[in-house]
Amino acid sequence: MRILLGLLSVAYASVVRYGSHISLIHVQSDHLLNSLTKIQWAHGGQIVTGISKGSDNEVVGSATWIVRAPVKNTATLSAKKLPYFTTQPGVPKESKDVFAAKPAGTPIRCGDEVKMEHAESGLILSVLDQKSQITRGLEVVGLSADDRDDTFVVECAQDHWDTKAPVKFRLNGEYLSSDSKAM
């Protein structure tokens, strides 16, 4: 049976902002979305699981995520369209001009895109195109920001992502979810 991850953020402020450090709780099971830095899959991805809130402090500390705005890499944009990115004095042509789509501190509105960065490892929450051996759903891992560009759409009932109300995360038409076998 699939259980939707109507994730609830746990933070001190009511409205979640880009740059916020949060923990995500699976509403139905009361488990935290967790990533262990010591365990990696063969493809190099860091394992992402759900853990009990009653787990030891080291494990619970690995359940902290930083909400990031999607970034744009101007090095991938056409120089013909935006020549000033590659011709600025003192900026090598091969440099990566990376900038956030929205600055830290900006409140996240329902429908905005976010990236979830694991606070300990700096890896980005990513969904692979391969099935999990346990649940047969798509596998969720932590990967380097250079490896993938997984941005999730925040779905919520209010105007902004509020810590007091559940939210859902959608990527390519699919929801971030869990399976009762994996909890």
UniProtKB/TrEMBL annotation:
Segments forming domain MIR: 13-70, 105-157
Highest rank taxon of the organism: Eukaryota
Q: Which UniProt keywords apply?
A: Repeat, Signal
Q: Where is the signal peptide?
A: none
Question: Which InterPro entries does the UniProt record give?
Answer: MIR_dom_sf (IPR036300), MIR_motif (IPR016093)
List, alphabetically, the PANTHER family matched: GH21273P, STROMAL CELL-DERIVED FACTOR 2-LIKE PROTEIN
Protein's UniProt name: MIR domain-containing protein
Species in which this protein is naturally found: Gregarina niphandrodes
